[in-house]
Amino acid sequence: MALRPILIHPDPRLKAVADPVDDISDELRQLADDMLETMYDAPGSGLAATQIGVMKRIFVMDCAKKEGTDPQPMVLVNPEIIARSDETKVWEEGCLSIPEIYADVERPAEVAMRWLDLSGSEREQTFDGFAAVCVQHELDHLNGRLYIDYLKPLKRQIITRKMQKLKRERQRA
């Protein structure tokens, strides 16, 4: 397993749509392992392949956040939402590609997803609460969207300027 560098907004790769995964290979399993290690190290609750510059439709997540709870890593390949609730919920979201910046985003409160697991089996599950936010946030990454795209333009510009400044500071360090 290896830690991978996480792209910071603005980066054109974060706005690109990821390509479908054609084959569940050992290389893909290694990518998933690297993504999980990178996500846990960051630390975060989810990580899309596009956030590490890999333009494939795969993301990892672990929404088990309670103290003393065992990790519950999930790997979702070619995920798609197959149903959304009419009810919405507002959550404060953050992103590993937009470090230390949080904003309220309104999303469907519940979603049903279909994806392939690392054995190539098709899976379906309904997510609610924090897990619903996580799967929608990560799927947005695979579709070239960031959570700040849901914000008003002025707030989005302020956040983008902060990230540009952060990137300049990191390059100097």
Description:
29% of the residues lie in helices and 29% in strands. The chain has a five-stranded antiparallel β-sheet. Strands 4-5 form a two-stranded antiparallel ribbon. It has a single domain, classed as Peptide Deformylase, CATH 3.90.45. It is built from three helices and seven strands. The protein is globular, with a radius of gyration of 16 Å. The mean pLDDT is 95. It has helices at 26-41, 129-142, 153-172, and strands at residues 46-48, 58-61, 74-84, 88-95, 98-108, 110-116, 122-128. β4 and β5 form a beta hairpin. The chain is α+β, with helices and mostly antiparallel strands.
**N-end to C-end Cα span:** 26 Å
| CATH class value | Alpha Beta
- SS element count, helices: 3
Largest beta-sheet characterization: 5 strands, antiparallel
Give the helix proportion (percent range): 25-40%
Kindly state the number of beta strands. Answer: 7
From the 3D structure, determine the CATH topology: Peptide Deformylase
Class inferred from helices and paired strands: alpha+beta
- Give the strand line-up of the largest sheet: 1-2-3-6-7
Query: From N to C, what is the helix and strand string?
Result: HEEEEEEEHH
Brief overview:
The protein has helices at residues 26-41, 129-142, 153-172, and strands at residues 46-48, 58-61, 74-84, 88-95, 98-108, 110-116, 122-128. With 173 residues, the chain is an alpha+beta fold. 32% of the residues are buried.
Blueprint of the fold:
Elements: H1 26-41, E1 46-48, E2 58-61, E3 74-84, E4 88-95, E5 98-108, E6 110-116, E7 122-128, H2 129-142, H3 153-172
Antiparallel strand pairs: 1-2, 2-3, 3-6, 4-5, 6-7
